[in-house]
Amino acid sequence: MMCLQFWRAVPTERRLAWGPVLFLAGLLMVSMTGKSNAENLAPVKIVAFGTSLTARGGWQPRLQTRLAACLQRPVSVENVAKSGETSTWALTQLDRVIAEQPDIVLIELYANDATLHRFVSLAQSRKNMGVILDRLHQRLPRARIILMAMNPFSGLRGLIRPFVDSYISAHQAEAQKRGLEFVDYRPGWERLSSDELAAAIPDGAHPRPESASKVIVPELVGHIAGRDCKD
């Protein structure tokens, strides 16, 4: 109880900075309980919770492989994701996420909220995200909860999401208010030329799996395990 009270008293920016260090320390403590072979350790369980950017993402196998190599222990990545769905749908899926008892939850739920035809207002999207984060944190108090900003949209897919950056910012604000983590992959995509970006995201919304893996996985592995561990 004293440790929990101390952690709650730590400023948000320090919690975010210490996240990877404490996560690795926890894994080390588990590994010192008598199991000397990494293959005998329980896997680090990750649930990727989101939309088609997760369901069709294709970056999960690469994340699983590279993070396992970095941590020197098994890693499993499961999806709770559905194309075309919103944060309103996500509220009905929390029991599925919790049932996995993950060590890490990766969340991206803004992309379809931001479409003009799905009628999820910015205020409602932010409220939904707050409820999602609170419930996950209450039911999975030891899990790392990481919100993500994914790839840019273009063409028609971009036109129907004129305020997508505002939705990302609203979700980020809800995470930061609770001392939770946020990873932004957009700078990685911005380093590509226009031709490279068009080839990587041909439909204007869904990156090719190999392209998504190249941009997302190094950033995410570094965030989870520390910057010394790169893809």
UniProtKB/TrEMBL annotation:
Q: Supply the Pfam families for this chain.
A: Lipase_GDSL
UniProt keyword Cell wall biogenesis/degradation present? no
Keywords (alphabetical) are:
Hydrolase
What is a single molecular function from GO for this protein? hydrolase activity
The reply to whether Ribonucleoprotein figures as a keyword in the UniProt entry is: no
Q: What is this protein called?
A: SGNH/GDSL hydrolase family protein
Q: What is the lineage of its organism?
A: Bacteria, Pseudomonadati, Pseudomonadota, Alphaproteobacteria, Hyphomicrobiales
